[in-house]
User: Fold this.
Amino acid sequence: MAANLLDELIKQSERLSPDEQLQLIALLADRARRRYPSSKPRRQWKEICGVAPYPLVGEDAQDWVSRSRRESDKTR
Assistant:
């Protein structure tokens, strides 16, 4: 039954103007967002600050930046 209802709604939505279709999309997206909040709460930077060891991949950050810039300059 739900599939039939969905098919009918899709057919009806095709008769809407582009502005009305966008309005319908926005309404449906908002409803879905409210019903299904993100399952994972976003982490705060202060929670993970200082967790990575220094240097992260065995290279100093400034050395990495300098090397990346040199490599980029060579390819230009």
User: Anything to note?
Assistant: The two ends are 60 Å apart (CA to CA). The mean pLDDT is 87. The chain is about 65% helix and 0% strand.
